[in-house]
Design a protein that fits this description.
The chain is α+β, with helices and mostly antiparallel strands. 52% of the residues lie in helices and 21% in strands. It contains 17 helices and 18 strands. Strands 11, 12, 13, 14, 15, 16, 17 and 18 form an eight-stranded mixed sheet that branches.
């Protein structure tokens, strides 16, 4: 016959919310271990009027057992009786009534009568536990019973079937030891040992059997003192396991901290290595989680930079591979640093060529992006002049000369590729314009389109070249060749003085700040002239020595 609970077929062992709540409260001293299990089962709060699967309490017992060992389960079993007062009262306090009617027999100094009273009490306890199980635990296979079997005057067997799992036997043992202590400690001592071969289990239930061996106390003991000592011993064992767990957790935390630090160092090394392959702006966004790796693009107005080394093939053929590697690495390192200093996004290196752009993923506005691009190109040409002089001094007879092309216009920028591999880059006709200008530039020269020059007219002196047409571009491309940086107003005044021997305005009539700047510029020009003379003298001397 199928058992029912609240009018529904009972398909698994269930227990009352009150019984489950008792277990959760017991584990409260261990932190959130009980609530964590409830959360795993989707239970936010236990309702004492509802019914819950035995699996929840079994999971709580297992969590305690795995972390704190059998000592913790024994202590929780021992203290389980603390919460039984209301249940015992609900069934009429049968143990209290039994004690009143059998007090003389239980406390008799006649051993035979004492044994008789003890066995009657143990049978009554088993009967009461069975009644309590019926009211709190509901098993499809039938009621869960407790039975005491006297074997001889001084030993017996106690059998208990309930919804505790076989591996948690020590929980039930603790509960039974507490019953013996609470009712028999003044006259008896005992040992309780599990008889594992007699134990059985099924779906949501287990039958536990213990051998109980008694010895009679010739001298009556204080029940209160015995119970306090037994409770203290169980508690001390429990606390010992908790402290042991705390030490383990501390050691594990320290190990974990070390592992986290190692992993952090490894991640930082990988991040540093990754940064060498992608633009710093993209790398920063990736590391902060602010960059999307979806295949997506957008249209933006960018300033595009192309450069390459003129006659690179013929120049490289005259160098030893080791020297070529050295000079190329030095060239790329210097150019890259200048690019980063000016906020450029490094798109790629193509052989000896460099492709950069301004305006994504970070932008200072169309005008400032274009001006930064022009300033970067000028700084690169100035740095190349220094490098060529140094390389000649190192024996590089025909050092690299670069040519640069700049253009500003709308491009498609973003992630291109597939789900398996992406590249962050730009495409479009305006990119091709910059590449075309670079290929048309003279050695050590810079060509830019009008769209770039319009934002940097106050920065450079230029010469207008013949316009060009390109496929896919619906306009004539006006081309400007950069001659030099544009002098400041005071620089031009100084040049006028040098050229005409006088100025339309007497320098003595300049404002103090103008006079100081004029003097500073004169000193700078003199220092540069002296520096060039010294360099020329050193070069002439080396040529003569050779």
């Amino acid at each position: 016959m199928v058992r029912e609970l609240n009018g529904k077929p009972l398909t698994e062992t269930m227990m009352t919310g009150a019984a489950l709540m008792s277990t959760v409260r017991q584990t409260a001293s261990l932190g959130s271990i009980g609530q964590d299990v409830l959360d795993n089962f989707g239970v936010s709060e236990v309702d004492p009027n509802e019914y819950y699967s035995y699996k929840i309490r079994a999971a709580i017992h297992e969590a305690v057992y795995q972390r704190f060992g059998g000592e913790a389960l024994f202590y929780f079993g021992y203290t389980q009786l603390d919460g039984y007062a209301a249940i015992l009262k609900s069934v009429g306090d049968p143990i209290v009534k039994f004690l009143k009617t059998h007090r003389d027999l239980l406390n008799s100094r006649d051993l035979d009568k004492a044994i008789e009273g003890r066995n009657l009490l143990l049978k009554k306890l088993a009967e009461v536990i069975s009644i309590m199980n019926e009211k709190s635990i509901f098993c499809p296979s039938g009621p869960l019973k407790a039975i005491y079997y006297p074997k001889s005057d001084m030993d017996g067997e106690y059998s208990l079937t309930n919804a505790v799992m076989p591996q948690h036997e020590i929980f039930n043992r603790g509960a039974y030891v507490r019953q013996l202590t609470y009712w028999l400690a003044n006259n008896w001592s005992w040992t309780v040992d599990p008889l594992k071969k007699k134990m059985r289990s099924g779906n949501g239930w287990a039958t536990f059997v213990w051998s109980v061996k008694f010895s009679y106390n010739k001298k009556k003991r204080s029940f209160y003192r015995t119970e306090v000592e037994a409770r203290r011993e169980a508690r001390e064992m429990f606390i010992g396991k908790v402290l042991e767990d705390a030490d383990t957790q501390k050691r594990n935390a320290e190990k974990q901290k070390i592992e986290v630090e190692k992993q952090k160092e490894k991640t930082e090394r990988l991040a540093d290595q990754l940064a060498r392959y992608i633009p710093p702006q993209v790398h920063k966004a990736l590391m902060s989680g602010d960059y999307s790796t979806e295949v997506t693009t957008r249209r933006k107005k960018l300033s595009v930079f192309f450069s390459d080394i003129k006659n690179f093939t013929s120049t490289s053929e005259n160098l030893q591979p080791e020297d070529l590697t050295k000079y190329l690495n030095e060239y790329f390192s210097e150019m890259t640093q200048i690019a980063l200093d000016h906020g450029a996004t490094i798109d790629k290196y193509i052989g000896d060529a460099v492709m950069l752009f301004f305006g994504d993923p970070e932008s200072r506005g169309e005008r400032e992006d274009a001006r930064a691009c022009v300033e970067m190109a000028l700084c690169m040409q100035e740095k190349m002049a220094e490098l060529r002089l140094r390389w000649r001094n190192e024996g590089f007879a025909d050092p690299f000369q670069i040519r640069i092309g700049l253009n500003t216009g709308y491009c498609n920028v973003g992630n291109f590729g597939s789900d398996q591999r992406l590249t962050y880059t730009i495409i479009g006709g305006e990119v091709n314009v910059a590449a075309r200008l670079e290929s048309a530039a003279d050695a050590n020269g810079i060509l830019m389109s009008y769209e770039t020059y319009a934002h940097a007219q106050d920065m450079v002196e230029v010469e207008k070249k013949e316009s060009i047409k390109m496929k896919g571009i619906n306009r004539d491309i006006q081309v400007f060749s950069v001659l030099c940086r544009k002098s400041s107003s005071l620089d031009r005044k100084l040049e006028d003085i040098d050229r005409r021997g006088k100025s339309e305005k007497n320098p003595n009539t300049f404002a103090l700040s103008e006079r100081l700047e004029l003097i500073e510029n004169q000193l700078i020009k003199q220092a540069e002239a002296i520096h060039e003379l010294i360099k020329k003298s050193e070069i002439d001397k080396k040529i003569k020595d050779n």
